[in-house]
Each structure stands twice: as structure tokens, then as C-alpha cells.
Amino acid sequence: MDIKEIRRLVKLMVDNDLRELNIADGEQSVHLKRGAEIERIAVAPSAPPAAEAPAAPSAPEAGFEAPEENLLEIRSPMVGTFFSASSPDSDPYVSVGDAVSDDTVVCIIEAMKVMNEIKAECSGTIAEVCVDNAQAVEYGQVIFRVRPA
Questions:
Q1: CA distance 28 to 17
Q2: Quick one: which of 1, 20, 77, 88 is 20 to 30 A from 11 by CA?
Q3: Torsion from C-alpha of 85, 71, 135, 97, nearest 10 degrees
Q4: Which residues does 142 contact at the CB level (< 8 Å), separation at least 6?
Q5: Residue 113 three-state SS
Q6: Domain of 140, in residue numbers
Q7: What average pLDDT does this structure show over 29-58?
Q8: What is the pLDDT, as a whole number, of residue 55?
Q9: pLDDT tens across 56-78, in order?
Q10: How far apart are CA 149 and CA 147, in angstroms?
Q11: Are residues 89 and 142 in the same domain?
Q12: CA angle, corner 107, sides to 105 and 108, nearest 5?
């Protein structure tokens, strides 16, 4: 399954307001889930893998790193391009140290030429901005860390 196919599936989810999608195609399967709390993203063969030696612990993938203690994470609900402001001439929606509430717009993620405002869905103070302006983000990638109020 290639990235174009996954993007098409994410668009299908957004267009139809789906929160979860499971698809199996031959030996491949994909499980996508949208929302504030992301449990996992899996693209794996549906057949059981051959017996292998235990793998050595590896570093977490970029964008999916372990949080510091007691920080809430705001994750990208979709694949797209992260924008910290509504236009290049505007100030960012939020910066480190800014207070946010459930309804605070923290950024825009552009997906399929649609600008999607992303809300904090938590209360606290922005502790870290985890991505750069105009950076591509993946579904479930941490984009902000928030120190709870």
C-alpha cells in the first residue's frame, strides 16, 4: 500500500466523518483511527510472520517519540502540511508559553487542498511545538506538547 492510497483512505474518512477504518487487501491490511486520542497506526501483513529472533529495542520513529512526564500531546488527526498561522504574514496561533483551552485553534493542517483548523482539545500551557511551519505531518504525529492546567 503506497502513500497515495493511504491519503485517499484518509480523505475518505474525513469526507464521511469516519473515526476508524480497517481494510485488508491480500497480504496487506491497514487500520486508521482519527480523533484526539490516537492509539496506533498499523500497516502490516495479515498473514502471521515467520518465526524470527527477538528484535533489539529500537529508537522511536520520528514524530512518535515518548513524551516527557505529565505533558499532554496534541497529535495530527490527518496526513497533511502543518501551518502555524493562517497566512505567512500572520502571527502563529500559539507559541511556547501560551495558554490554551479546549476550543483554542493551535494550527492548520492542509490536506487535499482543504485547510483544517486543529483545536487543542485540552487545557494548559504550550510546552513544546514539535514541528516546523510548512512541514509535512503524518497521522498521529505529535505536533504540540501541553503542560496541563
A1: 24
A2: 88
A3: 40
A4: 63, 64, 65, 67, 73, 74, 75, 130
A5: coil
A6: 72-148
A7: 55
A8: 52
A9: 544 445 444 554 578 999 999 99
A10: 7
A11: yes
A12: 110
Expressed in angstroms, the distance from the first to the final Cα of the chain is 41
pLDDT given for residue 39 in this prediction: 44
Would residue 52 count as lying in a domain? no
pTM: 0.55
Do 32 and 93 sit in the same domain of this protein? no
Helical spans, DSSP H, in the chain: 3-15
Give the CATH number of the domain where residue 130 resides. Answer: 2.40.50.100
Backbone angles phi, psi at 75, to 5 degrees: -110, 155
- Whether residue 93 is predicted with pLDDT greater than 90 in this model: the reply is yes
Residue 66: C-alpha distances to residues 99, 105, 135 (Å)? 23, 24, 20
